[in-house]
Amino acid sequence: xxxxxxxxxxxxxxxxxxGKMLAQAAADWNLDISVxxxxxxxxxxxxxxxxxxxxxxxxxxxxxxxxxxIITIEIEHVNLEALKELKRLGxxxxxxxxxxxxxxxxxxxxxxxxxxxxxxxxFIIVDNAVHIHQLIEQNIIAFPFVQKLRRAGYDGRGxxxxxxxxxxxxxxxxxxxxxxxxxxxxxxxxxxxxxxxGEIMIYDPVEMxxxxxxxxxxxxxxxxxxxxxxxxxxxxxxHTLIEKMNIVGLLAVELFLDKKGNxxxxxxxxxxxxxxxxxxxxCPTSQFQQHLRCILDFPLGPALTNVHSILLNLLGEPGYxxxxxxxxxxxxxxxxxxxxxxxxxxxxxxMRKMGHITIVGKxxxxxxxxxxxxxxxxxxxAHL
Amino acid sequence: xxxxxxxxxxxxxxxxxxGKMLAQAAADWNLDISVxxxxxxxxxxxxxxxxxxxxxxxxxxxxxxxxxxIITIEIEHVNLEALKELKRLGxxxxxxxxxxxxxxxxxxxxxxxxxxxxxxxxFIIVDNAVHIHQLIEQNIIAFPFVQKLRRAGYDGRGxxxxxxxxxxxxxxxxxxxxxxxxxxxxxxxxxxxxxxxGEIMIYDPVEMxxxxxxxxxxxxxxxxxxxxxxxxxxxxxxHTLIEKMNIVGLLAVELFLDKKGNxxxxxxxxxxxxxxxxxxxxCPTSQFQQHLRCILDFPLGPALTNVHSILLNLLGEPGYxxxxxxxxxxxxxxxxxxxxxxxxxxxxxxMRKMGHITIVGKxxxxxxxxxxxxxxxxxxxAHL
Lengths: 384, 384
Known about the structure:
Two copies of one chain form a homodimer. By secondary structure, chain A is an alpha+beta fold. Chain A contains eleven helices and 22 strands. In chain A, the strands form five sheets. In chain A, strands 10, 11, 12, 13, 14, 15, 16, 19 and 21 form a nine-stranded antiparallel sheet that branches. A five-stranded parallel sheet of chain A has the order 3-2-1-4-5, with helices on both faces. Chain A has a four-stranded antiparallel sheet with strand order 6-9-7-8. In chain A, helix 1 crosses helix 9 (287-295), helix 2 runs parallel beside helix 3 (80-88) and helix 3 runs antiparallel to helix 4. Chain A binds chain B through residues 5-6, 20, 24, 27-30, 43, 46-47, 284, 293, 298-299, 301-302, 326, 329-330, 333-334, 336-337, 339-344, and chain B through 5-6, 20, 24, 27-30, 43, 46-47, 284, 293, 298-299, 301-302, 326, 329-330, 333-334, 336-337, 339-344, 355.
């Protein structure tokens, strides 16, 4: 593949926390890593060279990519045309632009699952709000349903549940996927990795608990409470997906276990993922090092689970905006098994992801107790 | 202590591999960390802001330190007068300049052990080669003996064994410590940590195997083969030393177990240390995060040993000098439990420390087998 191994120049589109943690992993092997991000002093700036530019801008991505040997992503909403051109110019681009194009569009994603007979909730693709109204009148869409924008959704933005007629004025007037609302029993995520040679490694599934309104991950536990069969089923789905989608790198798969016991694919992200942050402390190979192994075509590292873990997102406290102040850090560090990651975002906003905390231990009961204690102590605020 | 906690500006004298790994640990908490180092693109440059300057130069250290809240070190041979002045100016300096002054001088170190009745080999302090010759004539010094320069020794430089009269022309003609050569059974290192509030944590001792001629660490194992009593004795000595030397930060203690079963202090270093690199993967708290906890006066993290480990130094292959080429990386990464750290030194030289590899596992036999395999596969060479 023309890879220069550890001497490759690696360019990452996006320099947020995922880019930062990828750069931290790259530092162990002294990799030459750069990120493209428009934010002054983006989080990844601490451990990677930052080029200021917009990863959605064709010219910015092209110019950035031409300086690299390998181009990868930490966010999927990037300029696809520039990536295609970079590939044409002989650069290595992971994931492949065609796979990324499929995933960038939640409509195409759902059609892919249907085409490959992979389990996912029932859905219909719509053009705009008028189209949705028509389908409701024709009894093709029934309440409650979920509307997801086909493009540019991220961290729960662009996703909403419409429970009844009175909420229809909230509809996004854009191309969307309308999904039957699943009666969710559990929300699960699983992380798969695949290198250029096709070697695949699947991490153990994790269970996620979301914020009831902000649709942001609050809490995640690994191993999860799925039974052995369910866990195998989830891992097999991840294996099938990463192969059929032809992903080189990581693929995070979010799934539902519904109340009838069905496992349904919700959506995927072809990059390091929030649901895999526990791998830094709880697994022999972190998702970040694994992603590097994938794109450098190195042998993959073991993905087993060493220890019980709970991952908490550290979100900006509601009611505060401004320069971030972290409360409770010292108290949390006094507890065994607590690993704090602060992303270095200058400004906090309500519910903004400012960091995460992983709590590990041999005893799940201890881990849960400490996690509860940590979530009570730690806060991100700002001067009012 | 006027500490600003995680908002402190931390300045490190030295930007080699120890500074680099300290900066990597600092990135988890988004600490503001800078290093002072004269090398263009010093290893720490990847994850810390580098100020170019000489850590032995009064003006350079003073100017650098004035921009910081907390000043610490990754090498003990730094300008002490500047550190004293920075302390006088209200900066936090760890370790304290008085403790550092004691340790910089191996003569004072030995006198300190004698004064505090701490076990160490017999020694005599000499001014120069003539002085040594006189003491030999007076039968005060007997062959074989060890000559150590009082100042500026590092990684075995400035240390030599004089076996017999014919070797006397090798004598350093400088102020030195002459030590009785110990009949070494085992070489041991132990790492202690102490925060500003006085909390102390001691890691488990490790056993070291040195290169027979270059006096560089080749191989280190943890836990080591000391019996429980010996291990306790070593840990107690480390506890006593870090307290009596009034160190804030890490103190690495190197010791001998002699053939009669005596434990003798060899020397100490008040900073992160080669013998503690396994703590990154094998302990809940790496020595680098622990050092940060110390100087920020955070509660210390647990220092217990999670897993068996062997640490190999990756040394420049004899016979090669020039831009470093790493051979065998991929083959080693195919083995479970292998963690490679490359320091990013552009140029390799015979026996130069270019990186280290930690091999971890539950089974000591497996770990030893993999370590042997790794040491055969991996090499740092250069184009001839």
